[in-house]
Amino acid sequence: MHVLVVSNGFPPPKDLLEAEFKKADLVVGADGGGNKILKYGLLPNVIIGDLDSFEKPKDVDFEIIHEPEQETNDLEKALSLVITRGADTCTVLGAFGKRMDHALKNLSVLKKFDAAFKKLIYKDELFEASIINGTFSEECPVGNLVSLFPLSGEVTGIVTEGLKFPLNNESLKNGERDGTSNETISDQFSVSVESGDLVIFVERR
Question: Is this model's pTM higher than 0.85 or not?
Answer without folding.
Answer: yes
